[in-house]
């Protein structure tokens, strides 16, 4: 499966045979989430990154994230082959006594390129899952509604951890570095630009704002050339909109967050959001749709830091949200204990043991 990239073992030990052996996919050093989750797991847990050569070994658990990513391959026959290979590997691991644990980041492929193939994939994949980790209480409910079999499986809620230690702070005056006047009020969209994230609608809503001294920054790499063209066309109609349509290196991320007053994530559909966690980790309030786990996020971080909207995003909502973001609050956003990585690793290891000790579901 060439779509699954081999990565070196994170931990090694001469007594590995006495430890719980976990195969993890994906482990991407460039993804702060997977790097933080697996980097300092408990001593009795041996984490290995997926590699076809490691399928000769027996594993207690295969821990999976984003299986729907294989549906983003535009060539349908190639996607079908990758998915079939993926399911075959699951069968091999289960045949040898391993358990399949799925962390539910999404309930479907965002781009919906292959609806028929996707429907078939989920039926076969869900039937092979032995345990479920959800990033939120609401996410677990929604997963059970879409995939009823999950309701009879071992399941737990373990949040997405914070990013405060993953991104270096900005060491310069962020606004001066970006040429933003100190008195300006800055909206920021940050992250990969994809169709479902609704960035063009955000730009249109911003264009209708009659406020003075407001700026919108759209920062992130678009998913396609056609989407790039759409975003540029919308932005060209308002000189207050600034585009940086490229991947931002980790050392530069804090600069954009520091320069903003409010991070806006106008997604048409959302279950979980690493971008929202990034904003909060770097002490910026966030405006998000009232969907998926965003209510849980607001409950956990508080109404001073998370604001939700339930209708189509418009200029009125943006203006109200900007006023809300300007209200007095601590300079540092408190991170709840359950979003701390050591707690997340401990809970993950505990759940591995629970699933291993559970009889298979019918």
Write structural notes for this entry.
The chain has 362 residues and is of the alpha/beta class. It has 2 domains: 16-160 and 340-356, Glycogen Phosphorylase B (Rossmann fold, 3-Layer(aba) Sandwich); 174-336, 3-Layer(aba) Sandwich (Rossmann fold). The chain contains 12 helices and 12 strands. The protein has helices spanning 32-39, 76-95, 115-126, 137-146, 174-178, 199-207, 225-235, 250-259, 274-281, 294-301, 315-325, 341-356, and strands spanning 20-25, 45-49, 61-65, 99-104, 131-134, 155-157, 185-190, 214-219, 241-244, 262-264, 286-289, 306-309. The strands form 2 sheets. A 6-stranded parallel beta sheet has the order 2-1-3-4-5-6. It has a 6-stranded parallel beta sheet with strand order 9-8-7-10-11-12, with helices on both faces. Helix 7 links the parallel strand 8 (214-219) and strand 9 (241-244). Helix 2 (76-95) packs parallel to helix 3. The two termini are 29 Å apart.
SSE layout:
Elements: E1 20-25, H1 32-39, E2 45-49, E3 61-65, H2 76-95, E4 99-104, H3 115-126, E5 131-134, H4 137-146, E6 155-157, H5 174-178, E7 185-190, H6 199-207, E8 214-219, H7 225-235, E9 241-244, H8 250-259, E10 262-264, H9 274-281, E11 286-289, H10 294-301, E12 306-309, H11 315-325, H12 341-356
Parallel strand pairs: 1-2, 1-3, 3-4, 4-5, 5-6, 7-8, 7-10, 8-9, 10-11, 11-12
Helix pairs in contact: 2-3, 6-7
Q: Keyphrases for this structure?
A:
2 domains; 35% helix; single chain; 362 residues; Rossmann fold; alpha/beta; disordered N terminus; six-stranded parallel β-sheet
């Amino acid at each position: 499966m060439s779509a699954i990239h081999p990565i070196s073992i994170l931990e090694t030990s001469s007594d590995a045979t006495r430890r719980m052996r976990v195969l993890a996919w994906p482990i991407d050093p460039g993804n702060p989430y997977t790097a933080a989750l697996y980097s300092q797991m408990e001593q009795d847990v041996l984490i290995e990154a997926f590699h076809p050569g490691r399928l000769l070994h027996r594993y207690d658990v295969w821990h999976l994230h984003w299986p729907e990513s294989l549906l983003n391959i535009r060539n349908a026959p190639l996607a079908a082959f990758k998915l079939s290979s993926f399911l075959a590997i699951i069968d091999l691991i289960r045949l040898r006594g391993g358990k399949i644990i799925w962390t539910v980041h999404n309930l479907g492929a965002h781009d919906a390129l292959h609806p028929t193939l996707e429907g078939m994939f989920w039926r076969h994949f869900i039937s092979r899952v032995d345990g479920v980790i959800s990033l939120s209480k609401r996410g677990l409910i929604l997963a059970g509604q879409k995939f009823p079999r999950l309701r009879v499986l071992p399941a737990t809620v373990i949040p997405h951890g914070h990013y405060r230690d993953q991104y270096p702070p900005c060491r310069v005056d962020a606004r001066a570095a970006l040429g933003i006047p100190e008195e300006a009020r800055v909206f920021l969209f940050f992250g990969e630009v994809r169709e479902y994230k609704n960035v063009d609608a955000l730009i249109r809503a911003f264009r209708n704002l009659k406020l003075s001294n407001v700026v919108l920054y759209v920062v992130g790499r678009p998913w396609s050339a056609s989407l790039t063209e759409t975003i540029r066309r919308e932005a060209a109609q308002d000189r207050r909109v600034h585009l940086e349509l490229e991947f931002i290196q980790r050392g530069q991320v804090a600069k954009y967050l520091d320069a903003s007053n409010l991070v806006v994530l106008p997604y048409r559909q959302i279950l979980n959001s690493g971008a929202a966690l990034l904003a909060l980790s770097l002490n910026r309030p966030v405006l998000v749709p009232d969907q998926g786990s965003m209510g849980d996020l607001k409950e956990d971080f508080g109404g001073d830091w998370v604001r939700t909207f339930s209708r189509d995003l418009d200029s009125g909502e943006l203006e109200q949200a900007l006023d809300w973001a300007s209200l007095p609050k601590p300079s540092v956003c408190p991170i709840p204990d359950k979003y701390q990585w050591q707690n997340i690793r401990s809970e993950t290891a505990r759940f591995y043991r629970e699933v291993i000790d559970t009889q298979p579901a019918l």
